[in-house]
Specification:
Blueprint lengths: L4 E3 L5 E8 L2 E3 L9 E3 H4 L8 E8 L2 E7 L12 E3 H7 L4 H16 L11 E2 L6 E2 L6 E2 L4 E10 L2 E7 L10 E4 L6 H13 L2 E13 L4 E12 L9 E7 L13 H15 L1
Parallel strand pairs: 2-6, 11-15
Antiparallel strand pairs: 1-5, 2-3, 2-4, 3-7, 5-6, 8-9, 9-10, 11-12, 11-13, 12-16, 14-15
Bound molecules: zinc ion (ZN).
The site of zinc ion (ZN) has 8 residues, from loops.
């Protein structure tokens, strides 16, 4: 059993995810998570009373330190935003992603949403608990579907109205309350581009901590309809052959992996 909230003694050794104002400490030049005992690391923060155990890396504990209140004199380049970690230090992403989400959870669940009293941390699971009314909260995870649609040797790619990258990608959207994942895929595709799909197949998933999504990927085939975009959500959408492919997300994102899988199918079509 994991004890989630650890008093920080001199023996506590592990990997340290220090989160400061939406950035994680990955000191130059290695830009890796600091490893060792807290006192030996010369981290630029006051020693906290409690650290949060958020998992294991190479069978060694990973701890979150919330340092949002600190002012750092240290080089700002020692801190990385989560997207930067994703694109530049991909192997650190899993831990940074979890640390960001737990940090956000702890920051936003200090008081009970039901009765307004102060919540307390539970040790045996990652949760906050309100003693007066017994309300318990866990880190929020928001399921999203993401789907690559193929029509013969073409793939449907779209540019999202809210996308910050400007890349063409596969369609994605949040699952609504009371909906199955499969219903969400069919609904989102129809809402965003006005087509029907078939042969939906589960592909895989990826935590997407912006701020707390879980992307669940599918492949599908075109069934019927003409592309009719929902302009609130989509700027442009079209069918692309391998020769026409626009710039798409990198392959360490699930969108990139789905596109690669579909391209392999397009080659066979
Ligand atoms: Zn309460």
């Amino acid at each position: 059993m994991i004890n989630h909230n650890i008093p920080l003694s001199d023996d506590v050794e592990g990997w340290w995810c220090v989160i400061h104002k939406h950035k994680v400490l990955l000191p130059l030049p290695s830009q890796k998570l600091p490893f060792g005992k807290f006192a030996e690391l010369n981290l630029p923060i006051t020693r906290p009373d409690i650290v949060h155990h958020i998992g294991y890396k190479d069978e060694t504990p990973v701890y979150l330190i919330q340092a949002n209140e600190h002012d750092f004199e240290r080089n700002e380049n020692d801190f990385c935003g989560l997207r930067q970690v994703l694109f530049q230090q991909g192997d650190m992403f899993e831990y940074a992603a979890r640390a960001f989400q737990v940090d956000l959870f702890l920051k936003t669940h200090k008081y009970c949403g039901q009765c307004g009293q102060e919540m307390e941390l539970i040790d045996w699971e990652l949760a906050t608990h309100c003693r007066p009314c017994n309300h318990r909260c866990y880190p929020r995870i928001s399921p999203c579907i993401i789907v690559a649609i193929r029509k013969g040797n073409q793939i449907l790619l779209a540019k999202g109205a809210k996308s910050t990258s400007g890349l063409y990608s596969v369609l994605a959207g949040f699952v609504e309350s009371g909906e199955t994942l499969e219903q969400a895929v069919h609904r989102e595709v129809f809402e965003e581009v006005g087509i029907k799909i078939k042969n939906l197949k589960y592909f895989g998933s990826q935590p997407w901590p912006f701020p707390h999504s879980l992307m669940m990927g599918y492949t599908a085939e075109f069934d019927e309809g003409e592309i009719t975009i929902c302009e609130d959500e989509i700027l442009a959408a079209d069918w692309f052959t391998l020769e026409q492919m626009p710039q798409t997300p990198p392959t360490h994102s699930i969108a990139g992996k789905l596109i690669e899988r579909t391209k392999a199918m397009m080659r066979l079509a």
